[in-house]
Amino acid sequence: MEDGSKEGSAMTDSKRHERQTSLEEADPSIGLFGRLLVGLSLLLTFLTLPLSIWMCIKIVKEYERAIIFRLGRIIHGGPKGPGLFFILPCTDSFINVDMRTITFDIPPQEVLTKDSVTVSVDGVVYYRVQNATLAVANISNAHAATRLLAQTTLRNVLGTKNLSEILSDREEIAHSMQTTLDDATDAWGIKVERVEIKDVKLPLQLQRAMAAEAEAAREARAKVIAAEGEMNASRALKEASLVIAESPSALHLRYLQTLNTIAAERNSTIIFPLPMEMMQPFVKH
Fold first, then answer.
1. DSSP state of 74
2. pTM higher than 0.85 for the full model?
3. Selecting from 3.40.50.880, 3.30.70.3270, 1.20.1250.20, 3.30.479.30, what CATH number does the domain 102-202 have?
């Protein structure tokens, strides 16, 4: 199984590399007319120096990459940056791509679980652009597409789970969503780094039913614990009675302990129990 997973990941990496290579190392030929336009643009740039230099110099920040198009084609060499790069004013255009990790909230989604319970679930997704060229060339708006795909993936994944699984296995659901999203957005140059389930909201009637069930379970456990305590107490009393029966002096000592306890409570009336043996001389046979 490990060999199969390694082979699968190797195939995914090779496909990703092929897509990147096909876009970044495509034939940059723009034809004879295109070369003529580029030459005229260069000539115009040299004739208008030094003013034109301000139109040729572009700067991208550390977290950005620039995709340069020359007459509609991505130029050879891939994204530029960070730092300084040059373009031709008349024939070149560029698009800045933010490479930082982006976070967005998945709006609450009404989901019907596998056991036919309607719940509202929301989450949060962390992703970043891994390949700027694919994010520009393969899709019109990679960020909006990732958001929409996250919503549908959340509904699809939760639709295969029972309510108890949704409430207890959030990490597993989040990991499943991350894997599905990462595979789907790979062709767009997007890397999904993390997915988290934020909140699961149940219908009010179901909340009341679950609260009543939990209260009943707690009462049942309390009764069991009380019954076990009574049983243990009765066993202890039985053992104590056996010890007292074997030693009459222990019964008198218990009398004295009881009197001490009563006196400590400052009662006005004290009942002193007498052993029956003391009354036998006065009893007529």
1. E
2. no
3. 3.30.479.30
